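Chain A, query sequence.
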Amino acid sequence: MYELKIKENDHSVISFIESVESPKKRDDAYKLLDIFTDTTGYQAKMWGPSIIGFGSYHYKYESGHEGDAPLVGFSPRKAKISLYFATGDTEREALLRDFGKHTSGKACVYINKVDDIDTEVLKALIHQSVVFLKERYPAR
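Chain A, predicted structure.
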């Protein structure tokens, strides 16, 4: 059976942020921690060794694959900061138009620094992602 690599754990979010080498990325991680916490109302938790997640949901695909994942999250990676939002949400693309300097993949949006983005749009992206996932995967 497939074993999920990213699981919620009890590692310290603050210790993880403090381990970030770049002082600017560390400062941005604290800014994002405040924004995500205030916007979601959830306490930050570590997911795997490097993702800071907020809330969680249980998903089950038609293939039978299922698991748990954070509703939203971020990771201050060495190259860029990864922001994790819901996949499949059509509202995301509209919000990203006014987001600022970023690139995006299927589940991630990548930024260099918080100063490059509109934090009000970030809050809207976080909120929209949480609403979308709670509707798509209602709690059992």
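The two ends are 23 Å apart (CA to CA). The chain has a mean pLDDT of 92.
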